[in-house]
Amino acid sequence: MRKRRRASSFPSPAVAVSLGMRRLLLPALLPLLACSSGDTRATDTTPAWRAEAVATIGSDSGDASFAGVRSLLFGKGGELYVLDYQYQSKELKVFDSAGNFLRRVGRLGSGPGEFRDPYSIAWLGDTLALLDPGNARIGLFGPDDKWVGQLPAPRLTGGNNVRLFRTTGDGFWALARRPTESGSESFFLRYPAAGPNDSLPFADMTVAARTTITCEFPDRSLHFFDAPFAPMSRQVPAPESRRAIARTDAYRITFLGPAGDTVQTIQREEPLHPIADSAWEAGLGEWTEARKTAGIKCDGDSFDRPAGQPVLGALFYDDQGRLWVEVHSLDGLRYDLYDAAGTRVATITGLPTSGEVDPAIQGDRIAIALPEEGGFPRIGIYRFAAPK
Fold first, then answer.
1. What is the spatial distance between Cα 212 and Cα 8, in angstroms, rounded to a whole number?
2. For 204-262, what is each residue's pLDDT tens digit?
3. Which segments in the chain show pLDDT lower than 50?
4. In what order do the strands lie in the sheet with 242-247?
5. What is the structure's pLDDT at 196?
């Protein structure tokens, strides 16, 4: 049995990037990137927008109860699709714009209209696509929720990268693997309406610091412990067959072209939150208790303490092709919006952290999976706009 223990909301980092035949250490690469096109460290005149809550969905029982929100998506009519997931109960629920339950789509199984391991949802034109690694497919549902077919998908599970990346309005990208002479490699596969027809390399991330410790307990189960506040790598497909790559301990987003060359860089000065000794010790609490177990065997004795708390959270695209950057600044949480040219067009406050679930965005509305409160998951629906 393999169990994952997280000492914080940020798992272990990736601090080196391999691009094709070149292996570049990211800390050495970053100063060079700052000199490339798209450096945005200029006088700030960005409009400041504010988000206001309009509805909350969630309860401890009934149709509005969730075991664990895995994916969110707004429908063409403004309804909200919620992929709810737990080991024995997996459901796709639909709510109206006010948060009222409407219906369920699909059911558990392996036949038409069924799913075994639903991970993510996205639109493929007017067709709802559901990533189902358990059945090695992407299930397709028509406007009336009826099954209309399927697309092949690999049996990849686990991790935040196993999802449908909603980068463009006419399709999506998904993580896949293919064989190589030395084994296999990951890559992004694009799914337009005609089916998968394009790919992008997935930058190979190599950990260079002690951020994860693996322990074998006396019952022979494996447990993985992640360092508190450890930085992470972020990698998402971007429009024009690009990839946006960042590391959460610095506000630098690098856009790589199909060949792995740097075509644009977004960079801003954003100081890190210091890590208080009490916060560090609290983050190590589960690891510290585990080490007291008699007979435990671990591959490390201590973690490398980061220089500060991560400044970047998630990267994701909205329905207008704008890049959203979650920023944990000294002034509080905000989201920065960038257009296709790399210009910051707005900053938005009043929203919670997105966690590990891509928000659903439609026009001026956004739905976010909220931290658990009262023992059950919830979803917040917000509207954002410039102050009047």
1. 12
2. 655 566 778 889 999 888 888 888 988 888 999 999 889 999 999 999 999 999 888 99
3. 1-42
4. 233-238, 242-247, 252-256, 262-267
5. 79
Contact call for residues 80 and 379 (beta carbons, < 8 A): yes
Quote the pTM value: 0.84
CA angle 137, 236, 380 (to 5 degrees): 85
Tallying the residues shown for the chain, one arrives at: 388
Q: Please state, in angstroms and rounded to a whole number, the distance separating the CA atoms of residues 171 and 124.
A: 5
What is the torsional sign of CA 193, 73, 322, 329? negative
Interstrand relation of 2-6 and 222-226 (parallel, antiparallel or unpaired): parallel
Taking residue 298's Cβ as centre, other Cβ atoms within 10 Å add up to 16
Residues with Cβ within 8 Å of residue 136, at least 6 apart in sequence: 152, 153, 154, 155
For the chain, domains (ranges, CATH) are: 2-385 (2.120.10.30)
Output the furthest CA–CA distance in the chain (Å, rounded): 63
For residue 279, CA distances in Å to 40, 109, 326 come to 33, 44, 22
Of 171, 177, 163, residue with least CA distance to 195: 171
